[in-house]
Amino acid sequence: MEEVVEEEPRLDRSPAPEDFHFYHMDLYDCEDTLQSFPEGNTRLRRETVQAEGGPGQAGEGQAQRDLQEVNEFIHLYGLEDDHELGDEFLDEDRMGRSAYPPYGLKRREPAREQRDWRLGEEDEAEDQGYAGWGMAGQSQALQEAYRYTHGRASEEYECYVIPEEEDEEEAADVFCVTCRTPIRGVEKDIDEHKEHEVTPLNKALESAKDEIHKNMYKLEQQIIEMENFASHLEEVFITVEENFGRQEQNFESHYNEILETLAQKYEEKIQALGEKKKEKLEALYGQLVSCGENLNTCKELMETIEEICHEEKVDFLKDAVAMTDRLGKFLKTKTDVEISAQPHFEDQTLDFSDVEQLMGSMNTIPAPSAPVINPQAPNSATGSSVRVCWSLYSDDTVESYWLSYRPVQDSPPGKDQEEFTVTVKETYCSVTNLEPNTQYEFWVIAKNRAGPSPSSEHAVYMTAPSPPVIKTEAIRSCEEAVLICWESGNLNPVDSYTVELTQVEMPATSGVTESVVGIPTCESLIQLQPGQSYTICVRALNVGGPSARSEPATVCTTGSYFPLNKATCHPWLNISEDGFMVIRSERKSLTREPLPSQTQFTRCVAVMGNLIPVRGRHYWEVEVDECLDYTVGVAFEDVPKQEDLGANGLSWCMKHTFAASRHKYEFLHNRTTPDIRITVPPKKIGILLDYENSKLSFFNVDIAQHLYTFSCQLHRFVHPCFSLEKPGYLKICNGISMPMHATFY
Amino acid sequence: MALKQISSNKCFGGLQKVFEHESVELKCKMKFAVYLPPKAETGKCPALYWLSGLTCTEQNFISKSGYHQAASEHGLVVIVPDTSPRECHIKGEDDSWDFGTGAGFYVNATEDPWKTNYRMYSYVTEELPQLINANFPVDPQRMSIFGHSMGGHGALICALKNPGKYKSVSAFAPICNPVLCPWGKKAFTGYLGTDESKWKTYDATHLVTSYPGSQLDILIDQGKDDQFLSDGQLLPDNFIAACTEKKIPVVFRLQEGYDHSYYFIATFIADHIRHHAKYLNA
User: Which of A523, A557, A591 is the last residue of a domain?
Assistant: First the structure.
């Protein structure tokens, strides 16, 4: 049983504990567990029935096999011999107990199937299955034996147990593809499955699983798609709401405007009409008054004439003549009977053109909203131009943009800088003719025929810097590295510098460029390959982008290459134009010895070279005159400048003195020298500084003769030193690869 | 010309061996030591000959100088012959330590009774190199020579008498001008007779004056507290003056506090082996 128990915890979920419950149940009679069984069993049985198509077949063949398995099982665990087992069968008590196991074991089967389904661990499942079968088989065999030996009493029991058993015993082991149902192997040659295509159950299981996985995958995909679509719909929904809301506002404002305009026009018209009316009425009234006056005059005249008619003849005549004159005069004054004002008013056309225009503009666009100006994109600027970009709201219609800018200046806030404005159609503009490494403030206004937008935010763009200028005269190099310095080339600070290296090789393989980026200062020590030639350029960088390349400098990693440090040069020494000749002229009586100094040699007439601060090996040569008094060697930068070279612990040098036609060679450090005699005065001295082995060696270059080697602790970097004790000159030879013979020291 | 191995000891990866052979030149049995560096297992190496000083055998150098490490690193076969013929039973050969046995002076004797056996010059420049070239993995084109005291004298004259034969030469406290020093006078008189013109053909300082100027880089170390220096046996200044005159490159290092012993040799042996390696391995 051990094997089974061990395996059980690895099964899925509940079945394992239930197995244990089974055994306990028998002892403690746990009701809960008992009740759970019938339910489980019926379910199981149903499954089995479905699976096998007919339970009837299962019986005998299965029983045979099971019996065999039981024996194997017993052998396996060394329980009893066959005949002993037989004896055991007689024990009724034991029978009763051991008859139960099938419940538990059966319970495990679905678990196994489930696990198969999920994990596909076939081997284990089979093992497990075998153990399960074994147990089941054993119990069945026991029952059969029981049935065989006992009579009715046991049959009751059998009735209770067996039906469950038989159904569940029969597990399908092949799959009929045609009927799409699992069947037992023995069935495949009989009945309806005879002609059908069958596959092993496991295979069928696999393919069914695959199928379901595929479908699940498809469904998942579909779910994702649907979700995406739903969120898209939501977006569209929101957009529609926004758009329509905006349009509503737009309409509202327009119609209000139109209504206002109409009201205003109405007022104007009404007022004009009233004035006209008043004017006409006044005119008519005036005419009426004057008409009445005329009438009175006429009446008066008539009365007068009637009176005259009643007078005496003489009087009549006399009066008549006067009357006639008066009448004549009166009649001569024309009576105005024309109506001065017409009752109707002049036909005035109503002018609705402005309203029409308003109406017309209704369906077109509103003025755009303020564009959004983008921050400066990296590497988009040059030394004289920037590329400014902005965006508009998607609903806006824009005909053009006004892009304005002015340089940002911290100093005088009151003083307005000159502003520039350009008109562009696109949403970007390359603004040129700008100052390098300078900040400019940009803002943009969109416009269409409805008018201009408000201004965008102001954005600061920066032009790229001017290219730096390499100090070619200060380049120091050795076989492994170069120390390169440059002038910024810009008044304002830049963010960093980039050094670009191109190996000068055969034309076919050229063009490989290495870059050293993010250099904060105006110098950089760069590792190189020995014996190569490099072209080196420097760019300055700021947020706007990189500057153009500097003028290139060429560096050869053959030997060491160092310039002389003019600041250390004794005033009596001159350095030639090419920088590699140290000359001491005939004593100038005018120049007195200089005052002591930290940097300048004041006692020995010397100059120091600027060797690259790289540990490793450095080799250089000095051409000397055989009869010249000179000292060559190395010293720390802070060697006392008012002392002779070799007169302290900070310098190591070879000193030549020529006196009384004798050459004296000293190898001085701390004022001491070994006693060394050299028969051939060197014309060219090779000096090998070897940090790795803490050695400084001197050679007679022409005959490859080793002269002397100092062992010196060089815990810091040293520099070459050259001194002339008498008028003459030394020639320094740089960029020489170390000769073979020197490699032995 | 059969070689008889006397001893063989592993040392710094190589083998320090001693052989004995029947010398044709010297007409006696001679021993010599050979150091074979590890490199000699796979290819031919340059040969460096060491000539010892008065009273020495092949043993002194190989046991006292500590040259093996440097020779091993530079891959040099180092050959150390004895300093004179042995057991020739010449009357007076063992009478003094600075003449006869152990004091061959690297000359070919012309006087009786020495002229039959005492042909050390030919032995070290002809017979021994031929023997070495024939029996050991050495490159005959690459050989150099150095020595101490009398052997320093020997090394210098071998190099100066055979321009181009040796790639380089060096010496520890050599007898630079034997014609003028007591040792030299005694030995040359005995081996070469009283004709001093014959002496000069074995005198380094004199040989320099007639040296044809083939490239030769000479390294000489000299202890400052060497009693034979103050006794006037070594006379390096004469040699330096001659070399300066003839522009023969010499670096002469007067080493403060050192004497004539093998302690002095052991101190600077590495410099000398490097000096030779520079030319032999170039």
Answer: A557
The answer to whether the Cβ–Cβ distance between B278 and A700 falls below 8 Å is no
Instruction: Please report the pLDDT score of residue A585 as a whole number.
Output: 85
Q: What is the pLDDT of residue A178?
A: 74
* Domain boundary assignment for chain B: 4-281
User: Model confidence over A244-293: pLDDT tens digits?
Assistant: 887 788 788 888 888 898 898 899 889 988 998 898 889 889 888 988 88
Question: What's the full length of chain A, in residues?
Answer: 745
d(CA A553, CA A501): 10
A455 in the same domain as A540: no
Test A674 with B254 for CB contact under 8 angstroms.
yes
H/E element holding B8?
Answer: strand B4-11
If residue A24 lies in a helix (H) or strand (E), which one and from where to where? helix A15-28
Residue A504: both structure tokens together:
């000068």
Which amino acid is present at B16?
A: Q
What are the beta bridge partners of residue A477?
A482, A561
Q: Which residues of A404-424 are buried (b: 16+ CB within 10 A; e: fewer)?
A: bbbeeeeeeeeeeeeeeeeee
Quickly state the pLDDT bin for B148 (edges 50, 70, 90). Answer: very high
Among B68, B153, B226, B275, the one annotated catalytic: B226
Please tell me the total count of domains within chain A: 4
- CATH fold of B4-281 reads Rossmann fold (3.40.50)
The sign of the dihedral angle between the CA atoms of A685, A686, A691, A695 is negative
**A550 and A431 in a common domain:** no
Give A-chain residues touching B234 at CB under 8 angstroms.
Answer: none
d(CA A442, CA A444): 7
Q: Is the dihedral of CA A736, A741, A742, A743 positive or negative?
A: positive
Per-residue pLDDT tens for B32-81? Answer: 999 999 999 999 999 999 999 999 999 999 999 999 999 999 999 999 99
User: Both A549 and A665 in a single domain?
Assistant: no
From A525, A529, A516, select the one nearest A556 (Cα to Cα): A529
Q: Is residue A149 part of a domain?
A: no
Alpha-carbon torsion B10, B15, B20, B26, what sign? negative
Let me know if residue A38 belongs to a domain.
no
Distances (CA, A) of A58 to A179, A411, B129: 19, 103, 105
Structural domain including A281 reads: 201-292+349-361
Residue type at position B109: A
pTM (2 d.p.) = 0.64
Chain A residues within 8 A of B219 when measuring between CB atoms: 706
B226 included as an active-site residue: yes
Do residues A400 and A515 both lie within one domain?
A: no
Mean pLDDT for the stretch of residues A171-194? 70
The SS3 of residue B109 is coil
- CATH (domain of A429): 2.60.40.10
| pLDDT reading at A667 higher than 80 | yes
Give the pairing type, strands A718-724 and A705-711.
Answer: unpaired
Q: Which of A677, A698, A740 to mutate to test the interface with B (most CBs of B within 10 A)?
A: A677
Shared domain check, A485 and A450: no
**H or E element that contains B51:** strand B45-51
Q: Do B277 and A744 touch (CB under 8 A)?
A: yes
The mean predicted confidence, pLDDT, of chain B is: 94
Please give the structure tokens belonging to residue A677. 């005699």
Instruction: Give the β-pairing of B169-172 and B218-223.
Output: parallel
